[in-house]
Amino acid sequence: MALALGAYASFSISDAFSKLLAGQLDPFEVAFSGGVFGFLILPFICKPHESYLDIVRPQQKAMWFLRAACVFVATAASVEAFMLLPMPEALSLMFLMPLFVTILSVVLLKEKVTAWAWLAVVLGFVGVLIVLRPGVRPLNLGHLCALLAAVANAGSVIAYRLASTEGVRLSLFGSSLIGPLVGNGVLMGLHARWPASVEAWVYLFGYGFLAALGQLLMMLATARAPANRVALPQYTQMIWGVVLSYLVFKQPLDSWTFVGIFVLTISGMLNWIRQRIRYERMAMKERMERKKARKAGAVAASTGS
Question: Which of 49, 152, 258, 298 has its CA 20 to 30 A from that of 67?
Fold first, then answer.
């Protein structure tokens, strides 16, 4: 849990650094730097028997390219969203990602989804409508980018599930590294410029390094705890977003935005509880099957003797 909390804190502060670069650097250039600094964590995840070339040698090429494209779109869109919107507002849209995963799971994976899952989807959209209040408040490119980031991240999760038989971890990580590097690298070519101040370099390093650190901490957390437990502290990102928005960017939130964030959090908690119950049932079923197998083996052994 502590590793997950550290990961989400790193992601949040990294997002704040990207927002500080608004007007100084092109969003694609900032997102590109995140891919560059991602190489820093490779020595920590590469095992002795693995080769760094496994990053670009996937077993399932189609899913590798799909995930690379999704991560590229997500990084570029999220940087642009944070540059244009208050952090809590951008996060409220990005927190729709689990809900888009639910929808894509039904459409693409043909998974059965319970009424509780659909309730979480509806609550999530209601929360976003409360935050955005279309027709009352003007919407801009930042809102579209935040929504696009949520959809792209959901697509990345679906691609990860479809590539669940991929045996090499570096291949899975490589897609999330190469995608932003290539995609953002091409798009920034027309607008890239050398950071003009030491301050810009510090912000750029802070964004890239903390994003890489967050990924490393998240991988360590998922190796030590079930995925549903690691996902729960994600909502501390919203707390970080509110605090940083107020203290660093002097952007306080109105009461309706807090109401929308609360509804979104309830939606996410409902989705988390649903997944936890599902995983516990699956674990219980596996334990029962192993128990039956042991009993059958004992009976067979006694009969044979």
Answer: 49
Cβ neighbours of residue 187 closer than 8 Å, sequence gap 6 or more: 28, 76
pLDDT digits (tens, 9 = 90+) for 41-62: 788 777 777 777 777 777 778 8
pLDDT per residue over 10-32, tens digit each?
A: 889 999 999 999 888 889 999 99
Task: Report the first-to-last Cα separation within the chain, whole angstroms.
Answer: 50
Q: d(Cα 207, Cα 46) in Å, to the nearest integer?
A: 23
Q: Is residue 303 scored above 70 in pLDDT?
A: no
For residues 45 and 173, the answer to whether their CB atoms sit within 8 Å is yes
Compute how many other C-beta atoms are within 10 angstroms of the C-beta atom of residue 65. 15
**In this structure, which amino acid lies at residue 298?**
A
CA dihedral 36, 45, 280, 91 (to 10 degrees): -20
Whole-model pTM above 0.70?
A: yes
| In the predicted structure, residue 38 carries a pLDDT above the cut 70 | yes
Residue with tokens 């990294």: 14
Structure confidence at residue 226 (pLDDT): 60
Q: Tell me the torsion sign for CA atoms 292, 293, 297, 298.
A: negative
Can you tell me the distance from the alpha carbon of 259 to that of 273, in angstroms, rounded to the nearest whole number?
A: 21
The answer to whether 93 touches 250, Cβ cutoff 8 Å, is no
Compute the Cα dihedral for 205, 208, 212, 215 and give only its sign: positive
Q: What is the dihedral of CA 256, 262, 266, 268, to 10 degrees?
A: 100
Query: For the chain, what are the domain ranges?
Result: 2-304
Distance CA 148, CA 29 (A): 18
Q: What is the pLDDT of residue 148?
A: 94
**Across residues 222-247, what is the average pLDDT?**
73
Amino acid at 240: W
- Beta carbons of 215 and 180 less than 8 angstroms apart: no
